[in-house]
Amino acid sequence: MRLLTGLLAAVLLLAGVASGHAVVRIADDRGGRIGTYVDKYQGLRSSGETVVIDGLCASACTIVLGAVPHHKICVTSRANLGFHAAWDMGTNGRAITNPEATHMLYTMYPAEIRRWIARRGGLTRQMIFLRGKQLMSMYRPCYMDAQASAEK
After folding, report:
1. What is the pLDDT of residue 144?
2. How far apart (Å, rounded) are the C-alpha atoms in residues 59 and 125?
3. d(CA 110, CA 81)
């Protein structure tokens, strides 16, 4: 009986330690202003939290790949990264590509991501997606049995 009680206590202790590990989940983030995401992810980088990409992470959201250490990012089978050129709103209300901001965005990405983008023609107005086996070959897989807070 004492052995069983000791094993149960050890399991509960380990479960408490595992569930206390901070995780941020990205699931449906269509992006936004680059500066906002740089600030957000710099804070996340310094927190040491693990990032679980479990759905769409597009546009400025993808800055997470350069801001957070590679070993602190994992992807699920639902992860889908969308990349495109940076743009500004023109005077006539139409989107205008911003070459300087696009270059800045591109340089934020890890080398492997930059090579993948370059093989597809670079960052253009057209969204390109990295997902599935290609993405899983670049980042470690993660499993959703860990508790994660929704992050947008």
Report:
1. 57
2. 11
3. 14
What's the chain's length in residues? 152
Q: pLDDT tens digits, residue range 1-11?
A: 443 333 333 33
In DSSP terms, which residues pair with 73 in a beta bridge? 51
The pLDDT score that the predictor gives to residue 64 is 97
Are the C-beta atoms of 97 and 85 separated by less than 8 Å? yes
What percent of the chain stands above pLDDT 90?
A: 65
Q: What is the pLDDT of residue 152?
A: 43
Token duo for residue 102? 């696009």
Contacts of 125 (CB under 8 A, 6+ apart): 84, 85, 87, 95, 97
Q: State how far the Cα of 64 lies from the Cα of 72, in Å rounded to an integer.
A: 10
E strand segments, the chain: 23-29, 50-58, 73-75, 80-83, 87-89, 95-97, 128-131, 140-141, 149-151
CA angle 62, 66, 71 (to 5 degrees): 105
Instruction: Please give the single-letter amino acid code of residue 52.
Output: V
The pLDDT assigned to 93 comes to 86
Instruction: Tell me how far apart the alpha carbons of residues 124 and 30 are, in angstroms, rounded to a whole number.
Output: 17
